[in-house]
Fold this sequence. Notes:
Order of helices and strands: HHHH
Distance between the termini: 41 Å
Oligomer: single chain
Largest sheet: none
Low-confidence stretches: none
Helix content: over 70%
Strand content: under 5%
Mean pLDDT: 89
Shape: elongated
Amino acid sequence: xxxxxxxxxxxxxxxxxxxxxxxxxxxxxxxxxxxxxxxxxxxxxxxxxxxxxxxxxxxxxxxxxxxxxxx
Length: 71
């Protein structure tokens, strides 16, 4: 199925945001997810990861605790 040009642009920024998110670079992730939403404001996964990035950026201690709990 062909994606619209806007959806393709959204996906490019989403994927960059996801890379930053997984690396714990939440400010960078927020920037990319915000850009993605410029192209597709209704994209659910992007909205979710933007909210999570914002939360983790504001609550950095949670990230440390999450990593400790995973070991």
